[in-house]
């Protein structure tokens, strides 16, 4: 259903501890926000792309598909930063060199940050990341709700897609007015079904003596300290190189 | 409209995250209390969250031919109340970033403020106000969903304008620039979302009265 989720469960790094990838992607984002963008961003983009494609074995095509929608947003958004609006004598739009620099900076930073997000999202199942949140002090009630949401998303999504197909097959989306009515019916039905499912789950759990905690088994991955160290060294090397390049370029 | 990963300058990203945190803490406290009193609430909340995610993945018909997605902000705020919506919205936004590449981790805070805090509170406020002034349910729902939507876009425009002030005309100029672009595309979408939400609520009041009674909606004076 979601290509990203499929890769997250079936990439070469699936048996490794999620903390390792969190360190790599999170560290990348941190470096990106602290060091000069113009030299850091291309390096981060390079490192993350290599790690995702060569390391985790994600096909290049799927990585590009991941980037496609956000890059579309970038292409429509960034040009607005390069033009300047003058309100003094009437409304006047003009190209501005300072704005163009900002636009370039934003584009580079966004692409690099996106590659960090891609690395994390394409290699790590959402549930494993959510489980880490518990360690960060997020209340266990919230973590459990998040895990339940993740599981329910796929059930509801299937209902939504099936429903929309059925409506489309009956000309439900042939005109604008019909589309609106069909979508309204679909949303109302989905909500009804969602609430029904919640009630059935409640009854089922109550019958099994539910007392407020859902305990599930999750696969245990050992944290590899040598790998963490290597990731740290890699991030350190990227930072040093970025700083050196920045000084060299002046 | 989600702000994409890395788009905001780091300081802005951090500041908006700091703004979002208190709302999340209050919302989370409320969720923890709710689930302690009634353990089964977590299933209801989980269903609501998954529903909100799926809603945001559906395509909305648009007059111009382009496609967009319903935000569900208004519907969620009316059904579940704004403080719970902050938590559910934040979870949905995180999942959208990780499962659909919509939004991002560094911009999560800014997106939470616009879509899970400002939008729902405006929608809820408009809904309560219209109802207390004696407005019909249909009108209250329409205004709540539409204005909630517009408030979200306005907030996003403000966030972008603060981050990227115009070189000559400053923050105000940038706000006109971003707001103008959004107004062109988003006002029709907000009206469509308003109409859609009315259809949904009408169907729900006709066919699943008891479901609505079970939710906060019934306490909002919707009867």
UniProtKB/TrEMBL annotation, chain A:
Keywords: Cell membrane, Membrane, Transmembrane, Transmembrane helix. Its main location: membrane. It comes from the Bacteria. Belongs to the CbiQ family. The keyword Endoplasmic reticulum does not apply. NCBIfam families: ECF_T_CbiQ (TIGR02454). InterPro entries: ABC/ECF_trnsptr_transmembrane (IPR003339), Cobalt_transport_CbiQ (IPR052770), ECF_CbiQ (IPR012809). The keyword Nucleus does not apply. This is Cobalt/nickel transport system permease protein. It is a multi-pass membrane protein.
TrEMBL record, chain B:
Forms an energy-coupling factor (ECF) transporter complex composed of an ATP-binding protein (A component, CbiO), a transmembrane protein (T component, CbiQ) and 2 possible substrate-capture proteins (S components, CbiM and CbiN) of unknown stoichimetry. This is Cobalt transport protein CbiM. Pfam families: CbiM. The lineage of its organism: Bacteria, Pseudomonadati, Pseudomonadota, Gammaproteobacteria, Chromatiales. GO terms for biological process: cobalamin biosynthetic process. Pathway: Cofactor biosynthesis; adenosylcobalamin biosynthesis. GO terms for cellular component: ATP-binding cassette (ABC) transporter complex. It is a multi-pass membrane protein. The gene is cbiM. Part of the energy-coupling factor (ECF) transporter complex CbiMNOQ involved in cobalt import. It is found in: Cell inner membrane; Cell membrane. NCBIfam families: cbiM, PRK08319.1.
């Amino acid at each position: 259903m979601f290509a990203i989720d499929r890769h997250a469960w079936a990439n070469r790094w699936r048996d490794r501890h999620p903390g390792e990838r969190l360190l790599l992607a999170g560290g990348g984002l941190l470096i990106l926000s602290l060091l000069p963008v113009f030299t850091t961003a291309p390096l981060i983009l390079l490192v993350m792309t290599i790690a995702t494609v060569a390391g985790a074995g994600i096909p290049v095509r799927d990585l590009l598909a991941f980037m496609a929608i956000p890059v579309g947003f970038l292409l429509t958004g960034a040009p607005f930063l390069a033009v300047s609006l003058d309100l003094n004598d009437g409304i006047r739009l003009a190209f501005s060199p300072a704005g163009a620099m900002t636009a370039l900076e934003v584009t580079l930073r966004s692409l690099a940050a996106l590659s960090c997000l891609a690395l994390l999202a394409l290699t790590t199942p959402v549930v494993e990341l959510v489980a880490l949140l518990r360690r960060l002090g997020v209340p266990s009630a919230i973590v459990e709700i998040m895990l339940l949401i993740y599981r329910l998303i796929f059930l509801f999504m299937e209902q939504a897609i099936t429903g929309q197909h059925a409506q489309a097959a009956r000309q439900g989306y042939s005109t604008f007015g019909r589309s609106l009515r069909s979508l309204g019916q679909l949303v109302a039905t989905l909500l009804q079904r969602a609430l029904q499912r919640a009630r059935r789950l409640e009854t089922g759990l109550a019958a099994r003596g539910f007392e407020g905690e859902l305990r599930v088994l999750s696969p245990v991955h050992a944290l590899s300290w040598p790998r963490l160290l290597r990731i740290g060294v890699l991030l350190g090397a990227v930072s040093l190189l970025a700083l050196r390049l920045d000084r060299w370029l002046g | 409209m989600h702000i994409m990963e890395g788009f905001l300058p780091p300081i802005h990203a951090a500041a908006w995250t700091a703004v979002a945190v208190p709302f999340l803490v209050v919302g989370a406290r409320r969720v923890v209390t709710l689930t302690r009193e009634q353990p089964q609430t977590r299933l209801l909340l989980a269903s609501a969250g998954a529903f909100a995610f799926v809603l945001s993945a559906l395509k909305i018909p648009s007059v111009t031919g382009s496609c967009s997605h319903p935000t569900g902000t208004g519907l969620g705020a009316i059904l579940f109340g704004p403080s719970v919506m902050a938590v559910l919205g934040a979870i949905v936004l995180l999942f959208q970033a990780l499962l659909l590449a919509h939004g991002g981790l560094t911009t999560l805070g800014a997106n939470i403020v616009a879509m899970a805090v400002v939008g729902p509170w405006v929608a809820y406020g408009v809904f309560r106000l219209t109802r207390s002034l004696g407005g019909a349910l249909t009108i209250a729902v329409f205004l709540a969903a539409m204005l909630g939507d517009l408030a979200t876009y306005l907030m996003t425009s403000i966030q972008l304008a603060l981050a990227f002030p115009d070189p000559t005309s400053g923050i105000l100029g940038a706000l006109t620039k971003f707001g103008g672009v959004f107004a062109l595309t988003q006002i029709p979408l907000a009206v469509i979302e308003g109409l859609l939400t009315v259809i949904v609520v009408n169907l729900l009041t006709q066919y699943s009265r008891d479901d609505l009674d079970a939710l906060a909606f019934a306490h909002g004076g919707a009867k």
